[in-house]
Design goal:
single chain; alpha+beta; Ybab, Chain: A; 3-stranded antiparallel sheet
C-alpha cells in the first residue's frame, strides 16, 4: 500500500469519525416515546439511551396493584430504549451506507 493510499484511508477514517460524532450529538437531542398498558405509562428516551421522562396516569397510581404498575413501567422503559437503539442504528446505517460494521453500534 502506498503512502498516498494510506493517507487517503486515514483521511476518510477521520472524516467518518467526525460524521459519527455529529450523528451522536444530533441523535442525543432526538427523542422517542413508548407506552404500556394502553398509554397509562409513557416513557420518553433520547438517542443516548437515557430516560428523559416517565408519565403515569393517576388512575393507575391509586390502585393497590404495585406489581402491575412496576411491570408497565418496565415494559415502557424497555420499549423506549429499544426504539432509541433502533433510531441510532438507522442514523449510523446512513453514515456507513448500509454496510454492517460489527461492533460499531
Amino acid at each position: 500500500m502506498s503512502k498516498k493510499m494510506f493517507g487517503d484511508m486515514m483521511k476518510q477514517a477521520m472524516q467518518m469519525q467526525e460524521r459519527m460524532k455529529k450523528i451522536q450529538e444530533d441523535v442525543g437531542v432526538k427523542t422517542v416515546e413508548a407506552s404500556a398498558g394502553g398509554g397509562v405509562v409513557t416513557v420518553v428516551a433520547n438517542g443516548k439511551q437515557e430516560i428523559i421522562s416517565i408519565k403515569i396516569d393517576p388512575s393507575v397510581i391509586n390502585s393497590n396493584d404495585a406489581d402491575m404498575l412496576q411491570d408497565l413501567i418496565l415494559a415502557a422503559v424497555n420499549e423506549a430504549l429499544r426504539k432509541s437503539k433502533d433510531m441510532m442504528a438507522e442514523e449510523m446505517k446512513q453514515l456507513t451506507m448500509g454496510i454492517n460494521i460489527p461492533g460499531l453500534f
